[in-house]
């Protein structure tokens, strides 16, 4: 995500800045969740392949 222009940080634009900061925090959190889901999927796939070999 591209950083906001310097003009967005001028006085009176705190609302816009906080919105973009919140947006950045949400994007970071979403990407963390996606990474966690990817890792869980890999673990489940490994678990499935182990079960297939056992049975």
Task: Summarize model confidence as the mean pLDDT.
Answer: 77
Relative helix content: over 70%
**Largest pleated sheet:** none
Number of helices: 1
Regions with little confidence, pLDDT below 50 for 5+ residues: none
| Elements, N to C (H/E) | H
The separation of the N and C termini measures 47 Å
| Tally of DSSP β-strands | 0
General shape = rod-shaped
> What is the percentage of strand-forming residues?
under 5%
Radius of gyration, in Å, reads 21 Å
Global structural class: mainly alpha
Could you name the key traits of this structure?
single chain; 55 residues; mainly alpha; rod-shaped; 21340_t:CDS:1
What does this structure look like?
The chain is mainly alpha-helical and 55 residues long. Helix content is 75%, strand content 0%. It has 1 helix and no strands. The longest helix has 41 residues. It is rod-shaped and about 65 Å long. The termini are far apart. The mean pLDDT is 77. This is 21340_t:CDS:1.
Write a concise synopsis of the structure shown.
The chain is an all-alpha fold.
Task: Outline the fold blueprint.
Elements: H1 14-54
Protein name: 21340_t:CDS:1
């Amino acid at each position: 995500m591209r950083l906001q222009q310097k003009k967005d940080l001028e006085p009176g634009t705190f609302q816009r800045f906080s919105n973009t900061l919140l947006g950045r925090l949400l994007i970071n959190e979403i990407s963390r969740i996606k990474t966690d889901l990817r890792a869980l999927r890999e673990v489940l796939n490994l678990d499935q392949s182990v079960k297939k070999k056992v049975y």
